[in-house]
TrEMBL record:
Bilayer-spanning residue ranges: 45-63, 75-96, 117-146, 249-271, 277-301, 322-344, 350-371
Species the sequence originates in: Roseibium salinum
Entry keyword set: Cell membrane, Membrane, Transmembrane, Transmembrane helix
Keyword Transmembrane helix: yes
Topology of the protein relative to the lipid bilayer: Multi-pass membrane protein
Stretches assigned to coiled coil: none
Name the UniProt record assigns to this protein: Permease
Length: 372
């Protein structure tokens, strides 16, 4: 992910686009690494995100030709399912920025952070998004300056439960498990949002965003005559240009990183069978709950596949707490989701996201084990 972001948020960050000019005055760094590295032609592209996206299927075609079609089909279908969300989020970001509405969005949350956290956690429990499909909406909220605390609440709760998942979980594992997972989803959202809000009051996460901006922070604010956003931006040439530039920048950004996420997902589904993942988390006791959360975090086992597999393992002796911890950890953070999250936020926020996901999974498993 060395090319994580060619352009960073206008609020700051260490990237070429945000460096001072001339480049030689402040961007020059001492030579590092072996000299042969610099002689590799096109090394920037060989180790880029797009190289991984295109190279993954190519490697499967070369070394495992019978699986190549299934591999590509899975990745393409998963990406196509997310395209409507990408289109909506990208168009909304571009419209708000061209209209100069970012400040208004931020002020809408002023003094209402607690309410925003609660609503985000509750809405996340109803939104039918997996850990990758939620990324375009998170990108949009980050781009227009919504509070990170409310975003984190939505981010944590949304992939955990939705009405179809609730019914599937109830059918395979019973209503007590399904209702418990829904309750833990909202609780984890509230816990994560509150933790981030307290950390921000202490001075943390002052500049959490990596979302690109094509205009470098300059451009179209609110109307100088009325001080309000210009919602019909297409009447002004500058705002039309801003809209197109933001559309291109954010579309390219989201398409690239979600394509990577789904290629990684296809690799996991193809070469790491779901039953193999699930069988690694059998057992009982606190240790089994912790191990289940650790295994579940990088694994990909979606909320439709996990319940029947875990039901079989529970019949063989797996504890209910370990099953709950595995389901929650896997839904919040899998390797594909991590790749997409890494593209949006800075390392400190990424670490907190993972930490909250793991802590929430273990805590949910322990509580569920005590109640059941």
């Amino acid at each position: 992910m060395t090319d994580a972001l060619e352009t960073l948020s206008p609020s700051g960050g260490a990237g070429e686009a945000s460096c001072c000019a001339p480049k030689s005055a402040c961007c020059a760094a001492p030579a590092s690494g072996p000299s042969w590295w610099k002689t590799i032609p096109g090394r920037k592209y060989l180790f880029s995100t797009w190289a991984t996206v295109l190279g993954g299927p190519l490697l499967v075609l070369i070394f495992d030709r019978p699986e190549a079609l299934n591999f590509v089909t899975f990745a393409v279908k998963a990406f196509a399912g997310t395209l409507p969300y990408i289109a909506f989020a990208v168009a909304l970001i571009a419209w708000l920025k061209a209209a100069g509405a970012e400040a208004y969005v931020g002020r809408a949350f002023a003094g209402r952070e607690r309410q925003a956290i609660v609503l985000a956690a509750l809405f996340g429990g109803l939104a039918p998004f997996c850990s990758c499909e939620v990324i375009p909406f998170i990108a949009g909220l980050l781009a227009v300056g919504a509070p990170l605390s409310a975003i984190m609440a939505f981010w944590l709760s949304s992939p955990l439960i939705d009405p179809p998942t609730l019914l599937i979980t109830a059918g395979a594992l019973g209503w007590s498990f399904a209702i418990g997972k829904a309750a833990f989803a909202v609780t984890l959202g509230l816990l994560g949002g509150t933790a981030v809000a307290l950390a921000m009051r202490a001075g943390a996460f002052a500049n959490p965003v990596k979302v690109p901006s094509s205009a470098g922070g300059s451009g179209c604010g609110a109307s100088p005559q009325t001080g309000r956003p210009v919602w019909q931006f297409w009447h002004e040439g500058t705002r039309r240009e801003k809209f197109v530039a933001e559309l291109r920048a954010n579309a390219g950004f989201l398409v690239k990183w979600l394509a990577l996420a789904y290629v990684l997902e296809a690799a996991l589904v193809t070469y790491v069978p779901a039953d193999m993942i699930a069988s690694a988390v059998g057992g009982d006791g606190i240790g089994a709950i912790v191990i289940s959360a650790l295994v579940g975090m990088p694994a990909y086992l979606n909320s439709y596949v996990a319940p029947p597999l875990l039901a079989g393992l529970m019949d063989q002796g797996m504890s209910a707490g370990a099953a709950m911890a595995f389901m929650i950890a896997g839904a919040v953070s899998s390797i594909p989701a991590m790749a997409a999250v890494w593209s949006l936020v800075r390392p400190q926020v990424f670490a907190v996201y993972l930490g909250l996901g793991f802590f929430g999974a273990v805590l949910s498993g322990l509580l569920f084990q005590l109640v059941i």
